């Protein structure tokens, strides 16, 4: 039977809303000038869900331009964890099936990965924009020989306007990824906080460059 891509995407967005409204149980694990990262055990798989929160020096529109999941978007240029991003199928105006490949990481301990996700883009009445995703299977995306298939469980980013501060944006993001393969848990546990800190740092540089 065909997968209900739109339904899965909506469910991932719902979950993002729940995480956003549920402040309990998060344990801080890393803080930089750009982001504070916390985690708690995932209810979706045998790993953790990570929460990143930071304020970016740009308007919500500019931040969204840098992170929105579209073909040919700037993300492959600034995000060191995204090597290639393609839209495999546009399900609707707001829902698409995407394939992301990542380069090797962590001194090559983590080999290149590929992820196939359904992604939903949504705008709320207060101007907040959300991109939410979760793993799916798709006939046009059989596993590739040179990649380990990883799985994103419900994850996403909220670009939240700050009242009275048009040139600043709160970015709240949730990452929940099974990297697949046979990685020591210690590697996984150190990779994500470092990777999220890098994401915010590189995104901050990207939005500054966009404004320059």
Automatic annotation (TrEMBL):
Keywords in alphabetical order: Lipid transport, Lipid-binding, Transport
- Record has Transport as a keyword: yes
Q: Which domain of life is it from?
A: Eukaryota
Sorted alphabetically, the Gene Ontology BP terms of this entry are: cholesterol import
Q: Which GO terms describe its molecular function?
A: cholesterol binding; cholesterol transfer activity
Could you tell me which SUPFAM superfamilies the record lists for this protein?
Answer: Bet v1-like (SSF55961)
Q: Where is the START domain?
A: 1-212
Pfam families, sorted: START
Q: Function, please? A: May be involved in the intracellular transport of sterols or other lipids. May bind cholesterol or other sterols.
Report what the protein is called.
STAR5 protein
Q: Which organism is it from?
A: Haliaeetus albicilla
Organism lineage reads as:
Eukaryota, Metazoa, Chordata, Craniata, Vertebrata
């Amino acid at each position: 039977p065909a997968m209900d891509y739109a339904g899965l995407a909506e469910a991932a967005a719902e979950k993002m809303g729940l995480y956003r409204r549920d402040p309990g149980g998060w344990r801080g694990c890393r803080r930089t000038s750009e982001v504070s990262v916390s985690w708690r055990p995932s209810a979706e798989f045998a790993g953790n869900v990570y929460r990143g929160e930071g304020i970016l020096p740009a308007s919500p529109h500019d931040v969204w331009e840098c992170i929105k999941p579209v073909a040919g978007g700037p993300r492959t240029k600034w995000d060191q964890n995204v090597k290639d991003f393609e839209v495999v199928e546009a399900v609707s105006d707001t829902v698409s099936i995407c394939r992301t490949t990542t380069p090797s990481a962590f001194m090559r301990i983590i080999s290149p990965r590929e992820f196939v996700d359904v992604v939903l883009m949504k705008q709320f009445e207060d101007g907040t924009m959300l991109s939410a995703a979760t793993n799916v299977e798709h006939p046009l995306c059989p596993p590739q020989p040179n990649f380990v298939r990883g799985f994103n469980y419900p994850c996403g980013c909220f670009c939240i306007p700050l009242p009275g501060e048009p040139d600043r944006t709160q970015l709240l993001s949730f990452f929940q990824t099974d990297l697949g393969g046979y990685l020591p848990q210690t590697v996984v546990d150190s990779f994500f906080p470092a990777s999220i800190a890098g994401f915010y740092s590189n995104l901050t540089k990207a939005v500054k460059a966009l404004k320059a």
